[in-house]
Amino acid sequence: MRNFDTVKRGYDQEQVKYYLDEIINEYEKLLNAKKESDRKVIELSERLEYFKQLEKTMNRAIFSAETTSDEIKKVARQEAESLITEAKRNANRIINDALLKAEKASDDADRLKRNISLLKRRLKSIIEGQLEIIEEMDKIEFERNEY
Questions:
Q1: Angle (nearest 5°) at CA 77 between 74 and 82
Q2: 64 in helix, strand or coil?
Q3: 2: left (phi over 0), alpha (psi -120 to 50) or beta
Q4: Hey, which of 37, 61, 103, 126 has its CA 20 to 30 A from 55?
Q5: pLDDT for 5-51, tens place per residue?
Q6: Is the pTM here over 0.70, yes or no?
């Protein structure tokens, strides 16, 4: 508290006015500072609300992304399983086709071997028959020469 000089009719009016002016100025400064603080509080509250909304939006986006990611993984697994199943079926079909072709080739080879064997016997028989004819011809020529 401030002490004022006393004069004839109480306190010095100039000092009181000056002091009141100082108080008014201080009060106005405090009032302006309060208004500024209130404005900043409102501004920060609005920004806080904005960030809360942004956080909610981000959380929803993250949840949506996780859900979508899980769904994509599920679909990818299903497609992979489907491709594997199809590949196994194709592999089995290819193996069965190859086994059938190998069996056919083996049968063809066996038939060729039998045909070659049969052909050899026939050729041998024909050649032996021709040799017999040649030998007979030799005998015939010898018998003629004897006369």
A1: 125
A2: helix
A3: beta
A4: 37
A5: 666 677 777 888 898 999 999 999 999 999 999 999 999 999 999 99
A6: no
Per-residue model confidence as pLDDT tens digits over 58-98: 999 999 999 999 999 999 999 999 999 999 999 999 999 99
Q: 15-52: buried (b, 16+ CB within 10 Å) or exposed (e) per residue?
A: eeeeeeeeeeeeeeeeeeeeeeeeeeeeeeeeeeeeee
Give yes or no for a contact between 14 and 31, defined as CB atoms under 8 angstroms apart: no
The Cα–Cα gap between 106 and 86 comes to: 30
Side-chain-facing half-sphere of 5: CA atoms under 13 Å: 7
DSSP state, residue 8: T
Cα(106)–Cα(115) distance, integer angstroms: 14
